[in-house]
């Protein structure tokens, strides 16, 4: 099967954990030192719904002085992770403008975007509620919203799988010719996973399970126990956990169950 | 540098005795008197300082001081010329804006005529304007209000607020007084930021009011010209080598290798022999990749080295304000987090200087006007690598992110010490509070302070102050609150078309008093006390010979204060000594208040109360003593920079010479800007479909005139001439008044043609006469400008034209598509 490349750009304010999130995803480690990003790129191959996908991830500067470079990033990206910190209200507000900018440059309201609330493990410092950000995502016409913790790796993989699916869906919807480059058309089972996974086709379903909707924040600090606790409740969610490369997930095996 | 660091981090080596052992009771007698006479004392000390400047202490010094005065005079003159040029530039700028606005408005097919009714009542009346004059005087001279607002506003309110603050209230970037006031506002905001941040690691990291302030500040003229001198050559060098590929990410190099192999195999994937996609480890281990990578890494290091060398050698060109901010960051870090390692302090300075100032300009030089257009892909990548390595140098790198950056670990290690030295050197600038204090008195006596400000800037500021008046000043009798009360409720802002720029004179009706800074802003009260104490000690020490007992290191602040307070030979020193004693008392009281706040609990017995009281005093005392240690070492640093008065004068001369050079450079820059604005204006005129006059020439606005530049395009653009009768013009409302006998009116007619978009020639003719009675060349922006300045009638000798209708008429008749 041919491996497709996906250009993903990570955007958001300074200090929200864009790099931590990206490095957690691509290298399976948590960065805890302050090293402001100017522009970094990462690559990781994952399977999404049985397809091999090469993710080319561009991690960008959050420091506002570098915003002149954004336009270029947005032009080159196919999908965007808009990251804020649940401990910093202003960082969520910044995303509103950022999303406008993405839509304007892409000249579309339907750009693949995932809203990501990072630092969900810092329960004591939280200032943005889950519901508030979820409402914002719904206003944007997407249910692709996750709260993540780069520290515990909670939901980090889900975010990237979601953006890949969005790009795939957009491409197959916009041009039939792309089918030629995808040797494996969506199977009935994988397409059903879209709707039950709440990727826009079935908003009410997504509302119900909502990514992260049912997890408790305290559970994030100990993913093993929370994984157990939540696995029964969420076992109906078709998370493609087998798709991720196991060798990179040494620290976080079995984690994806917490939804 | 090293000594400074040692003093700060190891107080053991500087066992400075206390200034006062029981401050609350010790200076009881006479204290009240000091407090009430504080202002006059300060004023007095200023007059003495001035007289010291003039006295002939020694001939060299006197000559040097004469040279200093001469320089100051030259700088003032040159600044004034620059100011006029800047005003012209702004004028042109606003004309361009008018044209663009008008174009937008007429595209939306709205009537452009600005009627009298729309203006009616939109301007605040005279009385209110006087209040606003007072209000903005207070805002400008008492920066703590703006500082407090910075911490209260939302990010969305921030932008237009900062616009007003940076470019209007403190808009005069080359005037020392405004600059110093702006910087002390900065200091308050920084201090607040340090106070409200609980964790060292998150300091100055997120996008906050402070970072926004920093961006806006570094974007001002001096910062931009520094970037140009420090970076332009190197950036252009990289940019000119557009073909040089210095990608060093093994994955990307592997892609190149693969593409080459694919090409060699004529596109036959199966013949390539290496996999298309590999992990970064495999890519980095690939022999060919390593071969390509090695020389590139070397070259990138060389280029980065040349950037770094240029930056370090341009230390003296860094604008004072930016260095001063670095200094504040260092001082605040040492005060708040005394245990911080030197390298962490440096990385915080680097987080401002490199992350927020230098590196953004390196990675997007076009948006800082260092190059003309966005660099191509390859130079852009090289510049990003340079910035990344500089960032790693300024901030202890972890290399945990992109593994290939480890290639530069050797380079970073080799240059780390020099980087830290540079960052510390940046902080080595003198404080300005002395001159600020002086300036604030001068400002009171100045009569010609004024701001060029739009009505809406005034009204928006009023709204913000109204919204936050409680947080700004709880004292109902404070000057701010008195004025806000006089002003009444803030009116809504005006529609854009009514928003005009006015010259708002600044004056204070509270002539006699200068409020103390410390009392007004609790968030930085302690820092302001410390700053003043520092400046007083420095003044005392500079007035005695270096060999004097009180000047011995380590400094003994108690000794200094007592010596000065009891010095009968010099009254100004005596006053300073007393001031220092009172400052140290205030400082202790502040600490005590803070500790007591923390210790307060509602129900305690008398015994417990006593016990708590004792503990509070003990802890406050400890805090106070620690601070004295820090303060002493800061003062030693300060003195090391100042040297003796003579050295000071010498260094002032050289710095003023460089100021003069900068101002002269700026003068050249402004003239260039004026020229390019002029040609831009011509362009905009061409595009905006209506016309204008050369009234500017008539009015002698002092603008360089480049109108001639457009003559090439003239022929193809010609519309008309068209003939219009006076009746037709009257019907359109264009003619307001006839200055000729009625029977002759019918013989008058107009010939109007447009030689190019935005430019109209209007001729007034009399039937049967071959020559034109009067001809006027009108440009669109002239008309718009007249409207903005509420000039509604244009006198053509025989007739008076009603400008708004004229504008409508011309736009209708000469609509170009």
Automatic annotation (TrEMBL), chain A:
Composition skew (Low complexity), residue ranges: 173-182
Entry keyword annotation includes Mitochondrion: no
Entry-linked InterPro entries: P-loop_NTPase, Small_GTP-bd, Small_GTPase, Small_GTPase_Ras-type
Domain of life according to the entry: Eukaryota
SUPFAM superfamilies: P-loop containing nucleoside triphosphate hydrolases (SSF52540)
Keywords assigned: GTP-binding, Nucleotide-binding
Pfam families: Ras (PF00071)
Xref: SMART domains: RAB, RAN, RAS, RHO
Residue segments, region Disordered: 171-259
UniProt-recorded name of the protein: Ras family-domain-containing protein
Species: Myxozyma melibiosi
TrEMBL record, chain B:
Ranges of Polar residues composition bias in the record: 22-33
Pfam families referenced in this protein's UniProt entry, alphabetically: RasGAP, RasGAP_C
Region called Disordered, residue ranges: 1-40
Transmembrane regions listed in the UniProt entry: none
Domain Ras-GAP: residue ranges: 177-395
Coiled-coil regions listed: 54-88
Record keyword Coiled coil present: yes
Keywords: Coiled coil
Entry keyword annotation includes Transmembrane: no
InterPro entries per UniProt: RasGAP_C, RasGAP_CS, RasGAP_dom, Rho_GTPase_activation_prot
Residue ranges with Low complexity bias: 7-21
Matches recorded under PANTHER family: GTPASE-ACTIVATING PROTEIN (PTHR14149:SF17), RAS GTPASE-ACTIVATING PROTEIN WITH IQ MOTIF (PTHR14149)
Protein name: Ras GTPase-activating protein sar1
């Amino acid at each position: 099967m041919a491996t497709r490349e996906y250009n993903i750009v990570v955007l958001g304010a300074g200090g929200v954990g864009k790099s931590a999130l990206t490095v957690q995803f691509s290298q399976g480690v948590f960065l805890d030192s302050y090293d402001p990003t100017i522009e970094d790129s990462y690559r990781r191959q994952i399977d999404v719904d049985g397809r091999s996908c090469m993710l080319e991830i561009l991690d960008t500067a959050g420091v506002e002085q570098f915003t002149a470079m954004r336009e270029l990033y947005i032009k080159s990206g196919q999908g965007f992770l808009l990251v804020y910190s649940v401990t910093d209200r202003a960082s969520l507000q910044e995303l509103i403008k950022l999303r406008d900018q993405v839509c304007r440059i892409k000249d579309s309201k339907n750009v693949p975007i995932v809203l990501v609330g990072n630092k969900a493990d810092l329960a004591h410092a939280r200032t943005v509620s889950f519901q508030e950000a979820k409402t914002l995502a719904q206003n944007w016409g997407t249910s692709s919203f996750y709260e993540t913790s780069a520290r515990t790796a909670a939901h980090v993989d889900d975010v990237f799988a979601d953006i890949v699916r969005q790009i795939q869906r957009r491409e197959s919807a916009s041009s039939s010719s792309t089918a030629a480059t995808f040797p494996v058309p969506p199977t009935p089972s994988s397409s059903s996973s879209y709707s039950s996974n709440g990727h826009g086709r079935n908003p009410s379903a997504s509302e119900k399970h909502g990514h992260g909707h049912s997890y408790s924040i305290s559970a994030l600090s100990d993913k093993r126990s929370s994984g157990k606790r939540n696995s029964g409740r969420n076992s109906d969610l078709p998370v493609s956990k087998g798709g991720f490369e196991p060798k990179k997930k040494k620290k976080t095996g079995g984690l994806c169950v917490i939804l | 540098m090293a000594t400074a660091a040692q003093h700060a981090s190891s107080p053991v080596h500087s066992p400075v005795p206390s200034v006062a052992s029981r401050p609350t009771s010790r200076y009881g007698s006479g204290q009240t008197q000091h407090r009430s006479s504080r202002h006059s004392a300060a004023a007095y000390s200023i007059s003495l300082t001035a007289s010291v400047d003039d006295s002939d202490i020694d001939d060299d010094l006197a000559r040097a001081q004469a040279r200093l005065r001469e320089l100051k005079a030259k700088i003032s003159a040159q600044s004034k010329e620059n100011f006029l040029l800047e005003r012209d530039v702004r004028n042109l700028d606003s004309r361009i804006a008018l044209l663009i606005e008008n174009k937008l408005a007429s595209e939306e097919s709205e009537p452009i005529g600005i009627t009298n009714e729309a203006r009616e009542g939109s301007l605040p009346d005279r009385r209110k304007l006087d209040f606003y004059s007072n209000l903005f005087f207070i805002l400008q001279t008492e920066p703590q209000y703006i500082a407090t607002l910075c911490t209260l506003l939302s990010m969305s309110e921030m932008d237009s607020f900062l616009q007003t603050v940076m470019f209007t209230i403190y808009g005069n970037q080359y005037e020392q007084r405004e600059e110093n006031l702006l910087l002390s506002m900065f200091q308050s905001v920084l201090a607040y930021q340090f106070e409200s941040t609980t964790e060292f690691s998150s300091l100055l990291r997120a996008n906050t009011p402070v970072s926004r302030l920093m961006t806006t500040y570094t974007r001002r003229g001096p910062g931009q010209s520094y970037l140009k001198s420090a970076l332009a050559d190197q950036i252009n060098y990289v940019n000119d080598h557009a073909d040089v590929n210095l990608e060093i990410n093994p994955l990307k190099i592997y892609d190149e290798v693969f593409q080459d192999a694919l090409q060699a195999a004529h596109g036959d994937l199966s013949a390539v022999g290496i996999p298309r996609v590999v992990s970064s480890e495999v890519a980095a281990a690939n022999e060919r990749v390593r071969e390509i990578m090695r020389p590139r890494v070397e070259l990138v290091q060389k280029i980065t080295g040349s950037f770094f060398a240029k930056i370090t050698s341009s230390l003296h060109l860094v604008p004072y304000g930016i260095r001063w901010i670095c200094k504040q960051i260092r001082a605040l870090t040492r005060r708040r987090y005394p245990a911080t390692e030197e390298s962490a302090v440096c990385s915080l300075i680097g987080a401002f200087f490199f992350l927020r100032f230098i590196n953004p300009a390196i990675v997007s030089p076009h948006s800082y006007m260092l190059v003309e257009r966005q660099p191509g892909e390859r130079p852009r990548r090289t510049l990003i690598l340079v910035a990344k390595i500089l960032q790693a140098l300024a901030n202890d790198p972890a290399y945990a992110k992109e593994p290939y950056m480890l290639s530069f670990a050797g380079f970073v290690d080799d240059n780390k010490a020099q980087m830290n030295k540079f960052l510390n050197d940046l902080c080595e600038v003198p404080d300005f509070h002395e001159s600020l204090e002086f300036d604030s008195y001068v400002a009171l006596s100045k009569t010609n302070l004024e701001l060029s400000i739009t009505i809406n800037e005034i009204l928006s500021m009023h709204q913000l102050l109204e919204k936050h008046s409680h947080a700004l000043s709880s004292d109902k009798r404070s000057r701010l609150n008195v004025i806000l009360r006089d002003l009444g409720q803030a009116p809504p802002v005006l529609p854009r078309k009514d928003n005009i720029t006015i010259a708002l004179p600044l004056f204070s009706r509270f002539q006699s008093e200068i409020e103390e800074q410390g009392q007004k802003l609790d968030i930085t009260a302690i820092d302001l006390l410390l700053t003043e104490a520092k400046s007083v000690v420095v003044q005392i020490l500079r007035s005695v010979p270096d060999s004097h007992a009180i000047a011995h290191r380590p400094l003994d602040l108690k000794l200094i204060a007592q010596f000065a307070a009891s010095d009968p030979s010099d009254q100004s020193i005596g006053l300073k000594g007393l001031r220092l004693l009172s400052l140290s008392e205030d400082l202790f009281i502040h600490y005590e208040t803070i500790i007591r706040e923390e210790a307060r609990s509602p129900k305690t017995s008398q015994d417990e109360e006593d016990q708590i009281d004792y503990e509070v005093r003990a802890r406050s005392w400890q805090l106070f003593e620690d601070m004295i240690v820090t303060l002493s070492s800061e003062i030693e640093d300060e003195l090391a920079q100042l040297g003796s008065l003579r050295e000071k004068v010498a260094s002032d001369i050289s710095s003023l010479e460089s100021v003069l050079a900068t101002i002269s450079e700026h003068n050249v820059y402004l003239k260039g800007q004026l020229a390019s604005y002029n040609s831009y204006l011509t362009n905009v005129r061409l595009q905006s479909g209506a016309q204008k006059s050369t009234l500017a020439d008539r009015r002698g606005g002092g603008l360089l005139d480049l109108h001639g530049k457009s003559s090439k395009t003239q022929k193809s653009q010609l519309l008309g001439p068209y003939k219009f009768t006076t009746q037709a013009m009257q019907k359109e409302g264009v003619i307001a008044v006839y200055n000729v006998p009625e029977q002759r009116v019918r013989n008058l007619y107009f010939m109007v043609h447009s030689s190019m978009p935005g430019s109209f020639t209007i001729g007034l003719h009399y039937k049967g006469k071959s020559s034109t009675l009067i001809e006027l060349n009108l440009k669109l922006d002239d008309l718009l400008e007249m409207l903005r300045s509420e000039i509604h009638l244009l006198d053509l000798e025989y007739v008076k034209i009603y400008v708004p209708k004229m504008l409508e008429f011309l736009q209708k008749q000469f609509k170009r598509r």
